[in-house]
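User: Predict the structure for this protein chain, please.
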Amino acid sequence: MSDLKARVNMLQSNCSKIIESLKVDKKRIRIAELEGEAAESGFWDKDQQKARAVMQKIGDLKKEVEEAVRVQGEIDLLKELSDTGETLKTKDVVRLEKELNKLKLDTFLSGKHDKKNTIVSIHAGQGGTEAMDWTSMLYRMYLKFAEKRKWKTETIDITSGEEAGIKSVIFQVSGNFAYGYLKGEAGTHRLVRQSPFNADKLRQTSFALVEVMPEFEKVDLPDISLADDDLDWQFFRSSGKGGQNVNKVSTAVRLIHKPTGIVVTAQTQRSQTQNRESALNLLRAKLWLLEKAKAQGERKALKGEYRPASWGTQIRSYVLHPYKMVKDLRTNVEVNDPQKVLDGDLDKFIEAELKLTKIVK
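Assistant: Here is the predicted structure, written as structure tokens:
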């Protein structure tokens, strides 16, 4: 019991520091300011995109404050019970330790764009069909991770492999701090296993490249102009799933930015309008990265330096044969249950990367 009481005392002490770091009082003030702005006459009539951004900001800030207040309240209650001699339950202490650790991680996410939604791209590297199958496994892994966090995901573009798997896929992850949590996943991921595509089941190594970008809307990047004359829009029928209308009507979009030659594609939505919006958001993210790449080290910090998905460039190895292990080569975090990781359990890896990045900064 004395051990549990000591852990509760530590919980309360750490909670006070974390709440201070999260600047909860300043967030309350900011919520009041934004709500005042939203209450002004003609708020929705002036600029609907900006209005939606303000409402999203209010919702995100409220969630952050409510979660911090809830955890602090439960820890304070546990401390009261401890002080009055009530019997403490180990499971309650363990649960609050985990929840406080999640709040602590939020303090590491102080980057300018960490709170934004994110756009994730996965591309098959060396390994042929095996690499394409690996790309589909990674795609599933990130969808599962997002599902565990109750984040919304939406596929923007997907190209299937000839025999199996996926050549490349681009998808959006919507949720508070989505970019902040996933940005460290950028890089080459290496898989080692017995190939299911080889009759002899030989050991096969394959690679896939993960890219992570913040999602931007027009209001986020006033300095980046997308003039109509600079845009070449092309429309075609989708080759993927999406319903009868998607495959019979030219709803898919290919957008070419003439000044830079950047090409983006969006084809999974049911309407051309939705695909156009997705393509514009993806183009903004790529143009923003291009601008930031001019500043030394910026590209590496935000997306990960471009390196071919091959030997010697991986950030994480997933070994399914001859032994079972997933190891991150940056943080040295290692687990012996690859299937659990592939089912979306990435918390250990992401937490370690966030802490390492914080220390380096």
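The longest strand covers residues 203-214.
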